[in-house]
Amino acid sequence: MIFRDYAKNPAEKYALLGMGCMRLPTIPGTQEPDPVKSEEIIDYAYAHGVNYFDSAYVYMGGKSEVVMGNALRKYPRESFHVASKLPGWNLKSRADAERIFNETMERLNLGYIDFYLCHGINEGSVDAFTDPAVGVIPFLEQMKAEGKIKHLGFSSHAKPETLRRFASLRDWDFAQIQMNYLDWEISTTREEYEILEELGIPTVVMEPVRGGRLATLTPETDAMLKALEPDRSIASWAFRFLMDKPNLMVILSGMSNMEQVMDNVRTFDECGPLSEKEKAVLKEAVDKFRSSVTVPCTGCRYCCDDCPMQIDIPKVMSIYNDYGVNRSPRELSQLDELTTGPKDCVGCGSCAHHCPQNIDIPALMKKIAAIER
């Protein structure tokens, strides 16, 4: 197992692979975690060196914290570290923060929380944490002073400018961001990582396999990766891409079954960062993957002026591209918010005539309208 020193205290060492407990095995027919199967995979991870286990107040209807705490309680308390999170979207007062924190403490029943996070900082929730009238951060600092929290941090889905503003509020012990090789290319992940590195805030990674999307790409791109590493899973490439980033403290993986845990442990036991050759092959694979699941719309809007139905075609293309990458029906639900959309296309072809990218827009509109959601 690969271990990293904690930058703010080198005496603390953490397995680079951490276990996320948002996707624990569930009881058939329900969304509740199966306590027996969950304990089995937590036990396997712990036995193979994993010492950082991450949950949150809202995960799995609040049951994740309970199951994680129960599974870990049999081990010496100093041999593992737990993380949990305070949601900001329902905070109206310090009393709300106190209630949620105390409930998490009861659910975990582990005496203290090693890593506690302001959960999911974004443009809509940041004020709940920073408003002095609410007083959330002073409360959390008090809990840290009392020893109930060992390390205080935050997780972020915010734009870089919001991330920088929140990260600069105080001397945070750590921060957690979504980071993987796809978002490194198509999103602001690289900038977010560099902000935290610049500010000296150790980084915990969430969604290294993008919710499982990077566990397999397409048959063609998977074959490219398998040709170079036939005995390694496609998911292993996502972890190895991150291994050479020096500011990383822990890479979380939301493991749902024993096969995933065993494969991840094997990756962190036997593999190191990608070689330059492997990086080049992965970059080529990502480019092919993106071109196979997205359309090359540049948002020039030349297609819009003559559309008789006044469809916002670039917006539709953007939604479709998000769907192509994520394969999540909720991406397509955004189409319902448009005044006119793919189902309203009359197939006149005026848009395609004006498209500098030579996209067959009417055919694509028909295809998008037919996708079930």
Explain what this protein looks like in three dimensions.
This protein is 43% helix and 16% strand. The two termini are 42 Å apart. By secondary structure, the protein is α/β, with parallel strands linked by helices. An 8-stranded parallel beta barrel has the order 3-4-5-6-7-8-9-10, surrounded by 5 helices. Strands 1-2 form a two-stranded antiparallel ribbon. It folds into 2 domains: 3-284, NADP-dependent oxidoreductase domain (TIM Barrel, Alpha-Beta Barrel), CATH 3.20.20; 313-370, no CATH class. The relative contact order is 0.10. Helix 2 (63-72) packs across helix 3, helix 6 runs parallel beside helix 8 (189-198) and helix 9 (219-228) runs antiparallel to helix 12 (276-293). The protein has 16 helices and 10 strands. The longest helix is centred in the C-terminal third of the chain and has 18 residues, at 276-293.
